Amino acid sequence: MCNAKGESLACTNKLHHFFVFVSFLLTREWLQTLGVQSSVIILPTIGKALNIPDSRQQWIVSAYNLTFSCFLVRTFMFIP
Predict the structure, then answer these.
(1) How many separate domains does the chain show?
(2) To 5 degrees, how large is the angle CA 59–CA 65–CA 48?
(3) What is the full DSSP assignment across 25-66?
(4) 66-78 tens-digit pLDDT
(5) Residue 16, domain member (yes or no)
(6) 67: in domain
(7) Which tens digits make up the pLDDT trace of 27-38?
(8) What pLDDT is recorded for position 7?
(9) Are 60 and 20 in contact (CB under 8 A)?
(10) Is residue 14 part of a domain?
(11) CB 61 within 8 A of CB 43
(12) Is residue 15 part of a domain?
C-alpha cells in the first residue's frame, strides 16, 4: 500500500482515478437503462403515429439503443 510520505500524493491520484472510473461506469449504465426504458414506454405511441404493427416495433428500441450507446461511448471517451 502507500505508506511512505512521498507516495501519498500518488496514492491519492490513483484513488481519485479509480473513483472517476467507477463513477463513469455507474453513470453510463444508469443512463443506458434510463434511455432504453424511456424508449420502451413511448413505443406504443410511436407505433401508432407511424402506423407500425406491434410485431415490428422492436427495431425502434434496437435502433435507439445502438445510437444512444454510440453517443455515450463517444461522450465519455475523454475521461482520464
Answers:
(1) 1
(2) 40
(3) HHHHHHHHHHHHHHHHHHHHHHHHHTT--GGGTHHHHHHHHH
(4) 887 787 777 666 6
(5) no
(6) yes
(7) 877 877 787 788
(8) 60
(9) no
(10) no
(11) yes
(12) no
Instruction: Please state the separation of Cα 2 from the chain's center in Å.
Output: 33
Placement of cell 500500500 in the chain: 1
Structural domain that includes position 69: 28-80
The b/e string for 34-69 (b: 16+ C-beta within 10 A; e otherwise) is ebbeebeeebeeeeeeeeeeeeebeebbeebeeebe
Res 14: pLDDT: 78
Residue 76 host element (H or E): helix 58-76
2: left (phi over 0), alpha (psi -120 to 50) or beta: beta
Residue identified by cell 407500425 is: 52
Give the C-alpha separation, 23 to 36, whole Å: 20
The C-alpha cell at 13 is 491520484
Measured distance CA(19)–CA(31) in Å, rounded: 18
pLDDT surpasses 60 at 80? no
